[in-house]
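INFO  loader      accepted 1 record
INFO  loader      residues=135
INFO  predictor   begin
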Amino acid sequence: MKKAQLLWKSIAPIGLGSIGLMLIPALVSGQTGDVVTYAKDVAPIIQQNCQTCHRAGSVAPMTLLTYEDARSFAPRIKYQVSNRLMPPWPLDVGVGIQHFQNDPSLTNDEIETIVQWVDAGSPLGDEADLLPNPV
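INFO  predictor   done
INFO  writer      dumping tokens
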């Protein structure tokens, strides 16, 4: 009897700890909400702020008109927007006039959305959420 109790006391914490570890992803995903997807979240940002230049025959070196385009450049997009290198906007919005007409700069929320999308593996999401490209 004592042997069984001793065995239970040594195994029970490991088993309960393992169950607790399995619950962590569920708790974390519940805290972060929906997964950011290209179709629902990222495409509108790219359409509004990037496709003017990132289309065939324009000044940018690659197009960003489709999910496949964006996904193939996802790590570079993350780097460029996180470091505020893209979209290019040479004016310091912290000095003088704060709001310019046709300012392509991304908001902090838009940058965070793109970062979350890339970090999540750049999921497409539901294609029904995609809006037609304006260009």
